[in-house]
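We emphasize that the prediction below concerns an isolated chain of 254 residues; any contacts that depend on oligomerization or on bound cofactors are therefore not represented. The input was used exactly as deposited, without trimming of termini.
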Amino acid sequence: MSDNFSPESYKTDSKPVWCAGCGDFAIYKSMTMAFSELKIPKDNIVLVSGIGCSSRLPGYFSTYGFNSVHGRALPIASGLKFARPDLTVMAVGGDGDGFSIGGGHILHTIRRNTSITYMVIDNNIYGLTKGQASPTTPQKHKLEKALAGPYDMPINPMHIVFSYGAPFLARVNSTNIKMMSEVIQEALNYPGFAFIHCLASCITYMGGEFNQFIKKRAYNLDEKGHDPADHKSAYEIALNEQFAMGVIYKKPLD
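Result of the prediction step, given as a token string:
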């Protein structure tokens, strides 16, 4: 077992193939920083993903990893955690992977309160399969780009996950690496299911439009003096269409 816990030590020699300017590069960096800060041995970490641009992440880490089929990261990560509770298990994937094909798995993972961290990297579009509408794509974008389902309302991931009873709920933006790393650390340390909604622009199919969309609606919870243990306040934040950044809810431990 190596005692090298530098962020670089968690990377492989494989070079990411994401488009230049993709938010996944920053997410990759924030995850290595989080593992480094927590000094988690590489052979104690398992990353599980589905299919999609962000689901390539396990292949770029020198930890254990599993690139599963589309939408099935959570049941595989859960089974692994049940079999090896001593391991740090983190599932990652995109909005299509998590909220469409794999949407039904979120409820049952939360219901069992499986002690894994699940980060959905939401770019409001299907990136790998060339720009189809995902469950979070805004109606305006679908109308302008003539995508399928232009009148389908986009889902609110935070409201859904909070309503299911997730004990840990947070949102981050890929443009803020420091906050991402800190939130990932807090989620990994939480002894229960931890959900992170990570907003990341798809530079190819959403361009700078999504970053501007986030910028107009985002605010930092720390600056508002929010108490993550306040269930009622957290619910109101989850319902809100603004993008609250930081830890929204953290159920107090008994």
